[in-house]
Amino acid sequence: MSYRIRLIKPEDRPAWEPLWRAYLAFYKTELPDSTFDATFARYSDPDTFDMRGWIAWQGDTALGLVHAIAHPHGWRPEPVTYLQDLFTAPEARGQGVATALIETVYADADAAGRPAVYWLTQTGNETARALYDKIALPTDFMVYRRNTG
């Protein structure tokens, strides 16, 4: 499969939105339209360097997306990169698209002097974990969230 990966542009909203909606549906999450608007605006703004997004394309077809956030870290002098979202369209899976999207985040982090890249996934997401186990090191940390009610 031949494809290219590039930063998300403002005109990519019609291609980006169905991918991100499918990603959120996988995690049984719905967000208001205002969140879609704000999120897309951040990831498609060429002047925003702490939040970046890329889409993998085959011709005019969007195959997948990845979002990454750079932020300071209390244990390191340099910022780190959090790979927030990764999704590949079902018809493009098994073709190396997800690996290429992750490697794009790695390259961006390296170019910016942020060698540490991390992300989360559900423990039961066996398909994704099979890939992640090949290209990254798992940790033994649990994620906790504030209980708001």
Descriptive overview:
- By secondary structure, the chain is of the alpha+beta class.
- It has 4 helices and 5 strands.
- The chain has helices at 13-26, 33-44, 97-111, 126-135, and strands at 4-7, 51-58, 61-71, 80-88, 117-118.
- It has a 5-stranded mixed β-sheet, with helices on both faces.
- The chain is globular.
Instruction: Enumerate how many helices there are, as a single number.
Output: 4
Mean pLDDT: 95
Which strand-content bin applies to the residues?
15-25%
Sequence of secondary-structure elements: EHHEEEHEH
Can you tell me the CATH superfamily? Gcn5-related N-acetyltransferase (GNAT)
**Helix/strand/pairing class, anyone?**
alpha+beta
Into how many domains do the coordinates divide?
1
**How would you write the strand order of the largest sheet?**
1-2-3-4-5
CATH topology: Aminopeptidase
Largest sheet: 5 strands, mixed
Q: What is the CA-based Rg, rounded?
A: 15 Å
Shape designation: globular
Report the helical percentage: 25-40%
The CATH architecture can be named as: 3-Layer(aba) Sandwich
